[in-house]
Amino acid sequence: MNQFKALLLKEYKEAFRDKRALMVALMMAFMAPIMIVVMSKIIIEKAVDQPPVYIKFTGSEYAPKLIEHFKKENLLSFADVPEKDKAIWDERNIVINIPDSYAKDMADGKPIKVFLQADFNDKAVGPPVRRINGAVRDFSLSIGYKRLLLRGVDVRLLNPVKLVEQDTAKPDATFILISMLMGVYMMMAAFMSGLSVAIDSSAGERERNVLEMLLCQPVSTLKIVLAKLCSASTISFIGVLLVIVLTTISVGFVDLTKVGATFSLDIVKASTLLMLLLPICFFASACQLFLAFQTKSFKEAQSTVNMIIAIPAFVPFALMMMDDRPQWLDWTPIAGQSLIIEDIFKGVEVNWLAMLATSGVTIAVTVALVLAVANKLKSEKVVMALS
Amino acid sequence: MKIMWKALFTVTLLSVSAASSAENSNLTIENCHLGEIRSQVKCGKLVVPENYQQHDGAKISINFAVLPAIDNSEYKTPLMFLAGGPGQAAVELATGLNRIFSEVRKTRDIILVDQRGTGESSALSCDLEDEESVYAVIASEINEQDVKNCIAQFKGDISQFNSENAIRDFDEVRKALGHKKVNIYGGSYGTRAGLVYMRMFPESLDTAVLDSVGPIEVPIGMFGQSGARSFRLLLENCQKSESCHQAFPNLAQEFQAVKARLAKEPVTIDIQHPRLGTPSKFVLDEVKFTGNLRFQLYGVEGRSMVPLVIHQAYLGNYQPLIGLIARTEGEQIVYTGLLFNIVCNEDIPRVSEQMRQADADNNFDGKTSHLAWDVICPLFPSYRPSQEFYQSVTANVPTLILSGDLDPVTPPSNGDYSAKTLPNSHHIVVKNASHTVAMSTCASDIINEFLTSRDPKALDESCLDDVPEESFMTSVNGIQ
C-alpha cells in the first residue's frame, strides 16, 4: 500500500507540476459554460425578439388598416428608419406595392394582390419576409372570418380539425439545448481533461527514461498503472466537476423564461450526474494509457490519443440520429451514460438498473484495460518502444 | 331547455369574456394535460365540507389546477384566478389564461379553482336532451316548468353554493397547496369574489387585482344604464370615425327603428343553419335583438361589427346578426344554475323598485336585462347572506383596480366604489377597452409588475396609451 501511495504521489506531483499544460487540459471545463451561455443567448434572442423591419411601401395610403396592422407587428415604413440603420435597410430594399384598386376590391370582396419585392437569396432578408408573410396571413384571415360571419356562417366551420399538442415532458423539463450541450461537454471534459496527464505519464515518461527507472523498482506493474490511472482520472473528474458547477452558475445569467424554459441542477441531479460520470473518467484515462503505451513516441501517442476524444462527441450524436437503436447500446460505455444523462435532464425517472449496468460494464472494461497495460509493462518491448 | 336559458342569459351576462403539497388526505394532485396547453400541468381535487358549519356533514370535491411557474428556482407567491359569471369554471379557461398570464407564469404558479357549482366541482347544470336551436328560441317562450325540472335535478344543499363558501374553498385550496399567501386576480364577478376574499381572509393575500369591478354595494343584475352608456360611447366613436360616420350616418335612429319594428312584430325567416347547413327557422324579437347586441359590447372585436349589424338589420338583412349569434352557439359559457343561485339570492333581493325603474329608464334596451331575473329568480330555492356580507370591504391589501371605459356591465364608476374604501388601492381606467381589461390589453404586463412591486400607485401604465381606438367594419367585406 505504501508503495502505491508513493507512486500515486509521484504521479500527482508530475501531473500538477506543469501548470500550463494542466490549464490547457481544463480549458474544456471553462469553455463549456461560456459556450452554453453565448449560444442560448443568441437562440433566445432569435426566438423572442421582433426587431423592427423597414419596408418601402408604395400605395400605403390605399390600405390604412393593413399598414396599422403591420405597425403592430413592428413592420414599419422606410420613412421611419433611424439614420444609423438607413444604409442597411436601403441595401435590403424590401418593397411592398399596394394596388390603387385596394379599397374598391376590398369592398367588392375581390381578392387583392399585394406585391412583395426583395432579394430572396439574401439571407438577412429571410426573417423579415417570413414575418411579413405571417402578418399578411393574419390580417387576411381576420377579415375573411368576419366576412363569413357577417354572411351568417358559423366561422368555426373553417377549422374542422384542430391539432392540440400535448408534451409529456415533466413540467420542470429543462431547456433542451443546454441539456444537450451539457451532456456532450461533460463527456468531452471527462475525456479531454485527463488527456495530457495520461500521455505524459506513459509515453512521456518513457521518452524521459523515467519509466525504465520505475520498472526497475521492486513494485508490481499493476500498482504503477493504477497510480497513473488514478492521477489522470482525478484531473478528468475535476474537469467534469468544473463543467457542472460553472455551467449551473453561468446559466443563471440567461433569462430562459423568455422562451418558456428553465434550467436548474439541484444537488440530487448533480450528484447523480457525478456518480454516473465517475466510471467514465476512469474509463477514459484507461483507454488513453492503453493507447499511449502502444505507440512508439510521445508525438505518436499525442496524435493517436487525440483521436479518441472524438468518441464522446460522436456517440451521443449518433444515438440522436438512430431511430431504433439496439438494446445493447444501453449498456455500452458512453452510449449508456449519454442516454441516462438525457433522462436526468428531461426530468424522467432515472433507470437505476440501467445505470448500474452501464457503470458495471464500464468498470469491467476499465479493469480489463488496466490489466492489459500492467501485463504489457512486464515485457521490455513496451518499455523500449519496440512493439 | 339549456339553450333557452342561454337565450335569456345573453341578455344578462356578467363574466370574463376570454376565454408541492402539504400533507392532507383530502388532497389529490397529479400531472395532467389541460385544454390546449402544450406542456403538462397539475390537476387536483380537494374534499371540503359542503357546509362549513357542519364539518362532519356532506362533503364536496373541489376541482382545481396549477399551471406551474416556468422558472421555479426561487419561490414567488402564486397568482390565484377568480372566474367571472358567476358560474364560469376557472379550470375550463386554462388555455386562454395560460396565454394572457404568460408573463406572470414565468415566475409564479397560477392556481385555477372551479368555484363550487361549476366545472368539476359539483356543477349546477342539467342534463336535458331537448336542446332547441338558439336561433329559433326567444325569451318569451321560456317554460317555467322546464326551469323547475332543472332545479329539481341539482344535487346537494344549493343554499351552500354561495359566494362566502366559495371563498372558504379557495382558501382551503391555498392552504392545502402549502402556500402561506397568494395573489388574487378577479375578473368581473371574480372581483366580487375577490372582495369577499379580502374581507374574510386578508392575511392570506399578498396583493389583489380587481378587473372590471362588481362592488358589493352595487347589486349584480341591473345592467340597463351601464349597457346604454356603453352603447352611447359606441355611437359616439362611430360618429368620430370618418369612415364609420360616412357609412352609417343615422345609426342611432336606425337602431331605434329596428327596435320599434321588432317590438311591434317579431320576425321569422327561413335560414340555413349556420353550422349544420340545414334549413332552419330564425326568430327575432326586440329582446333577442338588443340582448345579442349587448353581448357584443363586451369586447372591441364584437363592438367593431355592431354598427354594420344594426344597419343591415335596418335594411332587413339579419344574416350579420345570425353570424354573431353563431360565434358562441353551443358553447358552455357559464353554469347557469350557479349564476342564478347566486345572483337571485345575493343581489336581486337588494334591488328596490325605485332602482329597478331608474335602471330601466334608458333608450338602449330598457328593462330587458331584468327579464331573466324576473322570470327565474322566483323559481329558485332561496337563502340570504347576513347583513355583514353587504358591508363595504376595507382590507388593507395592496389592490390594483382596472376598468374599461367601454364596459357595458361594470362601468368605471363601479371601480371608484371599491377604490374609495380600499386604503391601499389604485384605479386605472383604460379608455379604449371594454369588459375585463387584462384579457385584451397589455394590462396583464402591468399586473405582472404589480405582483412584484406590490405598490399599486407606482406602476408603468404607459403601454395602455397605445391601446388603439375603436374601429368599425363598414361593409360586410370589411373595408376601412
UniProtKB/TrEMBL annotation, chain A:
Principal location listed in the UniProt entry: membrane
Keywords: Membrane, Transmembrane, Transmembrane helix
Recorded GO CC terms: membrane
Residue stretches making up the ABC-2 type transporter transmembrane domain: 26-367
Species name: Litorilituus sediminis
InterPro entries: ABC2_TM
Domain of life according to the entry: Bacteria
Name of the protein in question: ABC transporter permease
Record GO terms (molecular function): ABC-type transporter activity
UniProtKB/TrEMBL annotation, chain B:
GO biological process: proteolysis
Domain Peptidase S33 tripeptidyl aminopeptidase-like C-terminal: 377-463
MF-aspect GO terms: peptidase activity
Entry keyword set: Hydrolase, Signal
Signal peptide: 1-22
Transmembrane segments: none
Cellular-component GO terms for this entry: membrane
Family membership: Belongs to the peptidase S33 family.
Protein name: Alpha/beta fold hydrolase
